[in-house]
Amino acid sequence: MKKKGLGKITIVLGMLLLAGAAQAKHIIGGVMTYECLGNDLYEFTLKVYRDCNCTDCADFDETAFIAVYNCSGSGCNGQSQNTPFLRINANLLSVNPVTAPDYPCLIPPDVCVQEGLYRFESTLPPSNLSYHVSYQRCCRNVTISNIFDPENTGATHSIEITPRAQQLCNSSPVFDEFPPTVICAGSPLEFDHSATDADGDQLVYSFCPPLQGGGPITDNPNLYNTCIGARPIPSCPPPYDPVTFLAPNYTALRPMGGNPVVDIDPNTGLITGTPTALGQFVVGVCVEEYRNGELLSRVFRDFQFNVARCDPTVVAQIASDEIVNNQEYVIVSCGENTVSFRNESFQQNFIDVWDWSFDIDGQMQSFSAWSPTISFPDTGTYLGKLILNPNTACGDTANIRVEIYPEIRADFSFEYDTCLAGPTLFTDASFSGSGQLTNWDWAFGDGQGSDQPNPLHIFQEPDNFPVTLEVTDINGCQDALTQTLAYFPIPELIVISPSAFTGCVPAQIFFDNLSFPISEAYDILWEFGDGGTDTVVSPTYTYNEPGTFTVTLDIVSPLGCQTDTTFNNLITILPSPVAGFSFLPEDPSNIRPTVNFLDESTGAVRWFYDFGTGQSANLPNPSYTFPDTGMFTVMQIVTHPSGCLDTLLKTIDIRPEVRYYIPNAFTPNSDGSNDEYVGAGLMEGASNFTLSIWNRWGEQVFETNDPFDGWNGRKYNTGKDVPAGVYMVLVTFNGPRGEPFEIKGVATVIR
Q1: Mean pLDDT taken over the chain
Q2: Percent helix, percent strand, percent coil in the chain, to nearest 5
Q3: What's the distance, Cα to Cα, between the start and end of the chain in Å?
């Protein structure tokens, strides 16, 4: 059934002409929602908000030019502004003021905001694509603080009806309240931005980027109605670009900053935080509607927060131990009748009068200091008040309850054997004037604790432990005491590793002191039997001579307790050989690849050579022919009669060598003997070879890059015979490792 009260609607299929419209630098927000009426009929509500305090600004459009596009995803990019599914002209139904917030004891500046209401209906047949219903207008307030170029940035207010929403005849959520037009800087913000959904679907809230729409052009009739004009007719197709925030201070997710940062609860839509910067801030809030985990719609509201200085309020607040029901400050004093109060009331600059008063022995006594110190006559409960600016609209009162209890004093003693490791007995000696302790909280300084009055504790390591006892009495009074316990007993049994050792010279041994308890705080002396000593807990020691050695360990605790142990014949060190060898020739090559090895070891009875090629020998003085050039690591392992080994590594370079020789004469007379001038030699691995021959006048007569290519006595081997005589020869090339070679000579032509 069609609803009453709708403005006149015109569905336009052709182009519309607009005349006499002004650029509207006044937009501060808007939102579009829809309701499914059944039979493919939808009712849309568009709310647009403007700043009515601005000068030289246009009013709301009497007609909102709406475009409906039928597309989804990337398909929207192909839509033309001139070919929407529908064009709709929606008339302005009403203009209503938005009520300014009422802050107790705060006077915000005068901010004027108006809401323009448009409502229209449209029949949209079922489609497997989304319907996008959009309205665009430029421009925003020039004074906006958090986006780039606001006076030339417009807005898009759009709603999408997804295929699934069409199938379910879904209606979009509707936001309940419009945000406060003014926020006081430095005051906590708490605004319920929640929405109501008629279908009872799940709603998820978030900050999201406001959308651009249209541009600042108003003076060019050919462009005014286009996507870059101030009022596109009709609105352009999606997707729509977001506004550009002035990052990094402001982003779509942090549009206002603040301390704490202004944020939105995704489940409730509650916006909280404390804005600190003054200015006007564009904010976008999205609510997504889900049914059975499927997204049905996404409603977007674009609005502006005005953060301003406000005449301040005052709040009476006192430093206290407890606040009861957010109404009464409770101060507890144990064993001390004199209480120093700390006044933490807000906005002290605006507090003209303050008065503390307490009922003491049935009489009200007043105190005028900002933070007074008051002596109460005895233990008991005393009620009072702190009144700020009494009898004014901006006053406040704090109720106070002072509880004076008897003294409590923590104390304890401990007992343990200072020389032998064992448990420590702690004995509580605390006192409470109430006569009853209720809780004991021990911290032994080693990460362990107890709640017993007189606990027994075993420390696992020696140290100076800060032991703390905190006690609580029946009144809730607490006191704590920390004492240092020096726990440094000596080990009952000295244990070390290794328990026996046999090795070869030189022998490096790690002596692991397994005794308990032990630490670097103890005086420790190791004697290794060869004159060497050390004083660390677990040393590493090297024996350089063979023999059998007795090790002793002496331990003295920081408290003067001493113990020692002797480990007879603990270490046996066997003699070792010394590997050594040389080789000839000292510069072997591919021409001389056979190397003779000469043993220079001492104390050896067996030899083993590894030549680095997979081949080896067991002779003391072997010979070996290397199969290739290159660097080879030769390893010699020698064995002593004791079975101890020694190893020596040496690197041998088998150098690649080249040899090249040129003759000094030839007889190019075609008699089959010495008819060609050609070089000879070993040239494997050579590169960049050039042989050139020149006559006495400096003219080149032959050149080749092949070391075994010859000259036949003709110019370049194809011309006329050169005259008999002497010719200069130059040969250059690089060796296998890049080393340069140059050979000069003569070629005598004999005819």
Answers
A1: 90
A2: 5, 50, 50
A3: 125
d(CA 446, CA 363): 53
Full 3-state SS string of 349-410: HHCCCEEEEEEECCEEEEECCCCCEEECCCCEEEEEEEEECCCCCCCEEEEEEEEEECCEEC
Residues in the chain: 751
**Burial (CB count within 10 angstroms: exposed 0-12, middle 13-18, buried 19+), residue 121:** middle
Architecture of the domain spanning 581-654 = Sandwich (2.60)
Amino acid at 403: E
Q: Which amino acid, 329?
A: Y
Integer Rg of the chain from CA = 50
Q: Where in the chain is the domain with CATH 2.60.40.10?
A: 322-405, 408-487, 496-573, 581-654
Per-residue confidence band for 16, with pLDDT thresholds at 50, 70 and 90: very low
Helix/strand/coil for 585? coil
Domain 496-573, CATH homologous superfamily name and number = Immunoglobulins (2.60.40.10)
pLDDT (tens digit per residue) in 724-749 = 999 999 999 999 999 999 999 999 99
Cα torsion 201, 202, 204, 205: sign: positive
As a whole number, mean pLDDT of residues 139-149 equals 89
Ramachandran class of 646: left when φ > 0, alpha when ψ lies in -120 to 50, beta otherwise:
beta
- CA nearest to 574, candidates 637, 644, 511, 638: 644
Cβ-based neighbours of 274, under 8 Å, separated by 6 or more: 186, 187, 188, 189, 258, 259, 260, 262
How many Cα atoms occupy the beta-carbon half-sphere of 143 within 13 Å? Answer: 14
Angle at 222 between CA 220 and CA 226, to 5 degrees: 100
* In the predicted structure, residue 5 carries a pLDDT above the cut 60: no
pTM above 0.85, yes or no: no
Task: Report the pLDDT value the prediction gives residue 14, as an integer from 0 to 100.
Answer: 29
Annotation: CATH topology of 322-405: Immunoglobulin-like (2.60.40)
Please provide residue 113's backbone torsions phi and psi, each rounded to the nearest 5 degrees: -130, 135
Residue 75 has pLDDT above 80, yes or no: no
Give the side-chain half-sphere CA count within 13 A for 413.
3
Q: How far apart are CA 116 and CA 95, in angstroms?
A: 5
Amino acid type, 342:
R
pLDDT band at 56 (very low <50, low <70, confident <90, very high): low
The strand pairing partners of 730, in sequence order, are: 692, 744
Q: Please state, in angstroms and as integers, the Cα–Cα distance from residue 192 to each residue in 33, 181, 186, 205, 207, following that order.
A: 19, 14, 19, 11, 14
Binned at pLDDT 50, 70 and 90, residue 9 comes out as: very low
What is the number of H-type helices and E-type strands within the chain? 1, 57
What local confidence, expressed as pLDDT, does residue 379 receive?
Answer: 93
Q: What are the angstrom distances between the C-alpha of 285 and each of 204, 299, 303, 452, 619? A: 11, 8, 8, 56, 89
Task: Say which CATH superfamily domain 408-487 falls into.
Answer: Immunoglobulins (2.60.40.10)
pLDDT of residue 11 exceeding 70: no
Tokens 């849309």, located at residue? 44
What is the model's pLDDT at position 23? 47
A 10 A CB-CB count for 295 gives 14
**pLDDT (tens digit per residue) in 696-711:** 998 999 999 999 999 9
CATH topology of domain 659-749: Immunoglobulin-like (2.60.40)
Query: CB-based burial of residue 484 (10 Å sphere; 0-12 exposed, 13-18 middle, 19+ buried)?
Result: exposed
